[in-house]
Amino acid sequence: MRGRFRLPSERGSVSSASPPETAFPFPTQIVYDGSADRLRVAVDIDPLPADDVTVRAGARRLQIAVDRDDGVVRRTVTPLPPDLVFGDDREAVYNNGVLTVSLETRVHHW
Fold it and tell me: What angle do CA 88, 33, 47 make, to 5 degrees?
């Protein structure tokens, strides 16, 4: 199954703490490419369908939730350097059991 998702801006609150790796049982790769101003996250959720995945992105957090038979597991990711925020260019693609999320990053002057 292949799907393309638009990432809505998040208006609600999301826990700022990332759960321990053992709490999120799916292999995850997180790559920050500073020269391209992108954060890319790939999650292998095979054999679960795209309908069981929720992706939310706010200015400072990306949350991936996967609905399984035994409950929902979540992974929250924030930009690596503390002065970065996510920009408006956001994309999530599900292909052959792998969810790939790509988010623009930009420097925010507090």
Answer: 80
